[in-house]
Specification:
It is an enzyme of class 2 (transferase). The strands form 3 sheets. Strands 5, 6, 7, 8, 9 and 12 form a 6-stranded antiparallel sheet that branches. By secondary structure, the protein is an alpha+beta fold. The protein has 2 domains: 115 residues, 2-Layer Sandwich (GTP Cyclohydrolase I, domain 2), CATH 3.30.1130; 156 residues, 7,8-Dihydro-6-hydroxymethylpterin-pyrophosphokinase HPPK (Alpha-Beta Plaits), CATH 3.30.70.560. It is elongated and about 85 Å long.
């Protein structure tokens, strides 16, 4: 897991078991390591795709200032619990240091270090959403690119069969596409999810040169829960689902209730052929 480090946060805190420690605050230093998946942020350069470490620092300092704990162990535990409430933080390491330990020896400091994750502290998991995405490829190792896309999407709960389809729109003489649909459970909001899809496309070598031109991998967000989204950057449900037999055939495999009524009778026939399950196609290609 990737890491975000917050080092050298110093706060005057009431902590300790000795009588004078109960009367006057003393200086403590906390270092935090946040375990966060930073892959989306590395591609998108969007603040929303990472953990807000400034918020973590503010919350840790507030816990320390309000402390009346006897033990560093207890205070470290409470700092960890607060950090884990911040979105995208999956686990946290806390090192809490007494800078003036009440020991009559030549001692620079004492410290407690702990690591806690969401499960250990019963912090609710991030809310999961159900998204449906369409994947397509007509350049290079088409099966390999579809497999890569499915693997990178994360928690895929259902996949359709793979269909070979004629190219629709774009320049003439494009090669045939392989298309499929996947159902994904995700904690991401729809805008973060579409940024992840674009990152996966880029990792597969997608180049956006010609509108509706050939591509190694195309990933479109069809549905996100039951949400309707209409912005300059994102339209959900996808506005052209009802016109695309190459989307509706695989969609009917995994979520037939999402298909328009009588679509198979209303759309022009042809141009779409089922060729098998993705796993079987991957095995066949070795």
């Amino acid at each position: 897991m990737d890491r975000i480090e917050i080092n050298g946060l110093r706060v005057m805190t009431l902590v300790g078991v000795l009588p004078h420690e109960r009367e006057a605050p003393q200086p403590l230093e906390v270092n935090l390591v946040l375990e966060v998946d930073l892959s989306d942020a590395g591609f998108s350069d969007e603040l929303a795709d990472t953990a807000h470490y400034g918020l973590v620092a503010e919350r840790a300092a507030a816990v320390m200032r309000e402390s009346k704990d006897l033990l560093l162990e207890r205070l470290a535990h409470r700092i960890a619990a607060e950090a884990l409430l911040v979105d995208r933080v999956e686990a946290v390491e806390v090192t809490l240091t007494k800078l003036r330990p009440p020991i009559p020896e030549d001692l620079q400091s004492t410290a407690v270090g702990i690591r806690r994750d969401r499960k250990q502290l019963n912090v609710p998991a991030r809310q999961q959403h159900l998204a449906i995405v369409a994947l397509g490829s007509n350049l290079g190792d088409r099966v390999g690119f579809l497999r890569f896309g499915v693997e990178q999407l994360g928690s895929v709960v259902r996949v359709s069969r793979v269909y070979e389809t004629d190219a629709v729109g774009g320049p003439d003489q494009q090669g045939a596409y392989l298309n499929m649909v996947a159902v994904v459970e995700t904690p991401l909001d729809p805008f973060a999810l579409i940024r992840r899809c674009q990152r996966i496309e880029a990792m597969a070598g997608r180049q956006r040169i010609v509108h509706w031109g050939p591509r190694t991998l195309d990933i479109d967000l069809l549905f996100y829960d039951d949400a309707t989204i209409s912005t300059e950057d994102l339209l959900v449900p996808h506005p052209r689902i009802a016109q695309r037999r190459f989307v509706l055939h695989p969609l009917s495999d995994v979520a037939p209730e999402r298909c328009p009524e009588a679509w198979d009778d209303l759309l022009p026939k042809g141009g779409v052929w089922p060729i098998g399950e993705l796993a079987a196609l991957v095995d066949a290609e070795g």
